[in-house]
Amino acid sequence: LRPDQLALRVMQADPANYIMENDLEQQDRQTDDKLLDVEMAIYHMLGVQEELLSLWRQCHNNWNFKGRSCRGERNWMRLTGQATTALGNAITNLCVHWRLCSKLGNDWKLFVLLGDDGALLTNRTLSNKEVKTHGKLLYNMIMKPNTHDNVGTFCCFNIYKLPTNRWTMGPDIARLRRRFEVTNGASEATLVNHHARCMSYCCMLGSISPIQQLIKERGYTVEPPMWYDWNSNARATEDKYHWLPGKSDTELCMLLDMMRQTNYMDHKLLHWVEATR
């Protein structure tokens, strides 16, 4: 879904009092054989061929690792780059949360998820200890629940409450600025990639006046929709980070300055490694 479509879906949910963020820490590492079996059963129900399912399942078994001072063979876990990584993480997230949603009953209004990230709109809270114990005992998962009554985080979005007790979404300008400032190293820092990142961020930030000006300056072909209210989203961001009023505008200016620049800097960090023999 695009940001505007996701925001519309959140707004369509029934009024709720709280938002519970519940990310699964190290989900790939913690995925065990039972969760993998459930995932494969769902693929079978969706019509995936038996031969392909057998191959996917076997990829989780008999893998090995090797370091300078250790080596071994293990089963289970989700390995980086597997064909089922994205969808499998979402299925695992649903498996881990279904009992919590069932326990909340009619108090549960909406659950949005992407991979190991999740946010739950509810009229009733669950204690952090209860949620963590639930994940450890039943699913071998490390949960990080946080409950808020005003604004929460989902990926690079704010999900915040409106005066009507309904919820909506907007971009988390602080997280966007930090992510733009330090690249993840997955792609080369070329001018083409820089402009591609800028256009992507323009779509995320929407058709606010500074973004329209940047698009005109650069001659970009993107036409981002105005999918959120800047003022209410800025107040929600400032509440979340305990900022003074106006800090969101400062963060936006800092991000726009970086988007207008085309110079990247490489930094080398000295850190600990295993001792060589």
Please state the overall shape, judged from the principal axes of the Cα atoms.
globular
CATH class of the largest domain equals Alpha Beta
Number of strands: 9
Strand composition percent: 15-25%
Fill in the keyword field for this structure.
single chain, 277 residues, Alpha-Beta Plaits, four-stranded antiparallel sheet, three-stranded antiparallel sheet
State the gist of this model.
It holds the Pfam family RdRP_2. The chain contains 11 helices and 9 strands. The protein has helices spanning 3-12, 27-30, 33-45, 50-58, 85-104, 128-139, 173-181, 191-205, 209-218, 230-241, 247-260; strands spanning 18-25, 63-66, 71-74, 108-114, 117-122, 142-148, 151-154, 157-161, 167-171.
Give an overview in words.
With 277 residues, the chain is an alpha+beta fold. It folds into two domains: 105 residues, Alpha-Beta Plaits (2-Layer Sandwich); 90 residues, no CATH class. Helices cover 46% and strands 18% of the residues. It has eleven helices and nine strands. The strands form three sheets. The protein has a four-stranded antiparallel β-sheet with strand order 4-5-1-6. A three-stranded antiparallel β-sheet has the order 7-8-9. A two-stranded antiparallel sheet has the order 2-3. A hairpin with a 2-residue loop joins strand 4 and strand 5. Helix 7 runs parallel beside helix 11. The radius of gyration is 22 Å and the shape is globular. The model has no long low-confidence stretch (mean pLDDT 91).
